[in-house]
UniProtKB/TrEMBL annotation:
Keywords, sorted A to Z: Cell membrane, Membrane, Transmembrane, Transmembrane helix, Transport
Organism encoding this protein: Agrobacterium albertimagni
Record's protein name: DHA2 family efflux MFS transporter permease subunit
Major facilitator superfamily (MFS) profile domain ranges (all copies): 25-489
Listed PANTHER family: ACTINORHODIN TRANSPORTER-RELATED (PTHR42718:SF39), MAJOR FACILITATOR SUPERFAMILY MULTIDRUG TRANSPORTER MFSC (PTHR42718)
Keyword Lyase tagged: no
One GO molecular-function entry: transmembrane transporter activity
S-adenosyl-L-methionine in keyword set: no
Segments passing through the bilayer: 26-48, 60-79, 91-110, 116-137, 149-172, 184-203, 215-234, 240-262, 283-310, 322-339, 351-369, 381-405, 417-439, 459-481
Location in or out of the cell: Cell membrane
Membrane topology: Multi-pass membrane protein
A GO cellular-component term linked to this record: plasma membrane
PROSITE patterns the UniProt entry points to: MFS
Length: 498
């Protein structure tokens, strides 16, 4: 005898009545989303501790962060489609389970190799569960409630960015049972178990679409192109930049070209496309995607080397290090709260204003870092972190709006998903580039017999130069984008790309 439980609740796209448990189901999914977002920010403050305990090299430390982001980026689109094929609820729960199990492996890691592999698995789990969250929410809520529901995701992201460094530093400082940095991963286990149990009962089942297929050829070619760039950038320094590093970097170009040709072939054959050809022909989308990748490439690498600067250079504890960067997260959080009131201002203007604020804030932060001596005044950094965070928060929402404004409605889903993946790829590349600058400078100074805080300050200052170049590219990209006519997906001037 079988009884119908809440786990069997179903909804469909044409349901006339909204799902009655939609708000509690949303809370469960946001818990999983918060766990993923928290994991991105919580790790940075632990990097010096785990490097010391596990005897990791600088490139291995980079893989702890970049590997997670890279796998997450590559998995967003194919796993998003998998949710359509196999059922979004089932795939979401599998993703949460995989993320939770990988977190356990991270917490038990006996060496750095184990930890890197576990982080790759954790990134894959995050890529499985994350695309399902917005898709399920879209189906659960009627149009009039979606704005309120989706605004909670922005609030969740803001809370995760604020609490991550504090929670990470606090857990490490507690040194629970002598575990040191390991609780930052182990804390995910009870959260994941609760999410799975509640999700099974509360999240509605959505009818799968087994006729859909993934573009596996596109996935492989895109992964090869990205790997050929990221791997030599991270590992090249450790191997002394042999010829194969440059060969790999060069190979990224033919793989990228092959990807474009493959997608055109898929389009002609009316087969699944990882990145729709229509988007690749959309000038605004192409420029905007490169702009977004460049913009989001600046922060992950910066916070990685900043944690090294504070903890290894000045001997700060993980908690002190995390507290130092909190004003930046607070700035983003404040900006997300006031973003609705800025809606009347053109997206292009908001992006420019936000980026300029970040440039000024980071510039003054760099000047402050260059002036430090044997000790550092963390309070002196507070206003510049806050200003940079406000600028970042002001720019993010209109940037996505600007990029997607000219995308036809039929390509909106694919365009949004691809843009998020491109954003994560930019983060991985930024980690590789900024870390290469920082650690290469440390190694060069160590070889010259130099040591002390000024060596870390110099490396951090050099790493920040990449950020300023990236922000300049973003401003140029914004200026080069065409203006979209309100209420239309057509551009005011014809696009030269066909």
């Amino acid at each position: 005898m079988h009884s119908k439980t809440p786990a069997a609740a179903t909804i469909s796209a044409d349901a006339s009545q909204p799902y009655p448990k939609r708000w509690t189901a949303l809370a469960v999914m946001m818990l999983a989303n918060f766990m993923n977002l928290l994991d991105v920010t919580i790790v940075n403050v632990a990097l010096p501790s785990l490097q010391s305990e596990l005897g990791a090299t600088s490139s291995q430390i980079e893989w702890v962060v970049a590997g997670y982001v890279l796998v997450f980026a590559l998995g967003l689109l194919p796993f998003g489609r998998l949710g359509d094929v196999r059922g979004k609820k089932q795939v979401f729960l599998v993703g949460v389970a995989a993320f939770t199990f990988a977190s356990l492996l991270c917490g038990l890691a006996p060496d750095i190799g184990w930890l890197v592999v576990a982080r790759l698995l954790q990134g894959a789990g995050a890529a499985v569960m994350t695309p399902q969250v917005l898709a399920i929410a879209q189906m659960m809520f009627p149009p009039k409630e979606r704005a309120a529901a989706f605004s909670l995701f922005g609030l969740s992201a803001g809370l995760a960015s604020v609490s991550g460094p504090i929670l990470g530093g606090w857990l490490i400082s507690l040194d629970v049972l002598g575990l040191g940095w390991r609780p930052i991963f182990l804390i995910n286990i009870p959260v994941g178990i609760v999410t799975i149990l509640l999700g099974w009962r509360l999240i509605p089942a959505l009818a799968p679409k087994p006729g859909l297929k993934n573009d596996f050829g596109g996935i492989i070619l895109a992964a090869l192109a990205i790997f050929c760039v990221v791997f030599p950038l991270i590992e090249g320094r450790g191997f002394g930049w042999p010829a194969w590093c440059f060969v790999m970097l060069a190979m990224a170009v033919p793989f990228a070209i092959a990807f474009g040709l493959w997608e055109r072939r898929q389009h002609r054959m009316k087969a699944p496309e990882l990145l729709p050809v229509a988007l690749m022909k959309n000038r605004n989308y192409v420029i905007g995607s490169l702009m977004t990748a460049t913009f989001f490439s600046t922060l992950p690498g910066f916070f990685l080397i900043f944690a090294m600067f504070l903890q290894q250079g000045y001997g700060l504890t993980p908690l002190q290090s995390g507290m130092t960067t909190v004003p930046f997260s607070v700035g983003i959080f404040i900006a997300s709260l006031i973003s609705g009131r800025l809606g009347s201002i053109a997206p292009r203007i908001r992006v420019i204003v936000g980026v300029v604020m970040v440039i000024i804030g980071m510039g003054l932060l760099r000047m402050e870092i260059q002036s430090v001596g044997d000790s550092i005044d963390r309070m002196a950094l507070l206003p510049w972190f806050l200003m940079s965070g406000l600028g970042m928060g002001i720019a993010i929402a209109p940037m996505f709006q600007l990029v997607l404004a000219g995308v036809p409605p039929q390509d909106a889903g694919g365009g949004s998903g691809a843009l998020q993946a491109i954003q994560q790829v930019g983060s991985a590349l930024g980690i590789a580039i900024v870390s290469e600058i920082f650690f290469s400078d440390l190694a060069r100074n160590a070889a010259a017999g130099m040591s002390g805080q000024e060596v870390y300050a110099e490396g951090l200052s050099l790493g920040l130069i990449y950020n300023f170049v990236a922000y300049a590219i973003v401003l140029i990209a914004v200026a080069s984008m065409r203006t979209v006519t309100p209420g239309s997906e057509k551009l005011e001037r014809p696009l030269p790309i066909e």
